[in-house]
Amino acid sequence: MLHTFPAFRYASLSVLLTMVTFFGLVVALGEARAAERTIVVVAQNGGTEVTDFLVPYGVLSRADVGDVRAVSTEAGSVVLWPGLTVEVDETIDQFDSRLPQGADLVIIPAVLDHDDEVLIGWLKQQADKGAMLVSICDGALILARTGVLDGRRATGHWFTEGTRRDHFPDVTWQTNVRYVHDGTVATSAGVSASLPISLYLVEQLADKERAEALARELGMQGYGAAHNSDVFGIGAGEVWVAARNFTFGWPRDVYALALSDGMDEIALAFAVDMLSRTYRSEIVAVGSAPTKTLGGLVVMPARLELGGSAAVISFDGTGDLTPRPGAFAPKDILLFLADRYGRDSADFVALQLEYPR
Asked: Does residue 29 belong to any structural domain of this protein?
């Protein structure tokens, strides 16, 4: 036995080295596949929902699960509703010329023109080439027009449930769920569902461990699909808040959004979205030059000076409000709104974003 022990030891070491090499190759191949994977967040130049667009772009860029590209339907700047202008990487025509085999994953935010034949046709082509199509919020309205949702389960913003059921009866529309994955398509509920579905996509593209680690980094307890959409609706109270704020909230408060390099896309998105939905305020991007977000997206300033603003929203700690990154941002902004306009106004903003309170 003493004579055979060294041979056994060396054999064990050889097996161990082989295993290490094997798993190293697995990791390397996984990283190579991620580098080759192309993820598109597509935008309509004339109006694309800001959180639907920025959150998936930011989360997937940070997760390092592929080459994340911001792509627009035509040349020029993209207007992110309700108030931000960005420059994207390329147009859909440029993308097609560069990558004729198509994307691996295409994310469709809510857009203003649901009948955009250029966008609808391009999405059909991407599906035919094998791309997984993912809609955020009422991106489901344009995704449904491609026909790829027919016979599948899907969801969307609570407010358009009746419209979706009436116009697309061949889709099995789901409620009380944050996101639905059915085959090669996935859909999410209202605006704030952009964060959990983005983390779910990280799990699908990488693994659960990476998604959970990123969720913790972003300040989320989890990213499951459980959701109670039945609590969202328009009643007398919500009508009163909207009418009161619109009628008596003059002059409108104008918040200066101080742009800075390396801004967290999630905090940026929720700041623009929430501070523009009170019916008595708006937000304006301010900076001396175009600025890049954490993931490299170029944001254009609307004006140069901070002066004349009700408050300054910043990302470097110098403003009246500095939303924390990730999932902490909407909580910070809603507290800010409740302090300025009352809890009912903050709840009204949360309602529009289908954000659980």
From this structure: no
From edge to edge, which strands make up the β-sheet containing 253-258?
281-286, 253-258, 311-313
Check whether residue 67 and residue 190 sit in a common domain. Answer: yes
Q: Which long-range contacts (CB under 8 A, 24 or more apart) does 149-153 make?
A: 149/185, 149/187, 152/182, 152/183, 152/185, 153/180, 153/182
What CATH number does residue 159 fall under? 3.40.50.880
Determine whether 151 is exposed, middle or buried from the number of CB atoms within 10 Å of its CB (0-12, 13-18, 19+): exposed
Residue owning tokens 């390099």: 261
Q: State pTM to two decimals.
A: 0.90
Residue 238: what are its φ and ψ, rounded to 5°? Answer: -70, -40
State the total domains in the chain: 2
Query: Tens digits of per-residue pLDDT, 315-329?
Result: 999 999 999 999 999
Mean pLDDT confidence for 99-109 = 98
Residues 137 and 46 in one domain: yes
State whether 49 and 180 are in the same domain: yes
Domain limits for position 268: 236-352
Give the count of beta carbons closer than 10 Å to the beta carbon of residue 104: 20
**In b/e form, how buried is each residue of 177-191, taking b as 16+ CB within 10 angstroms?**
bbbbbeeebbbbbbb
d(C-alpha 146, C-alpha 162), whole Å: 19
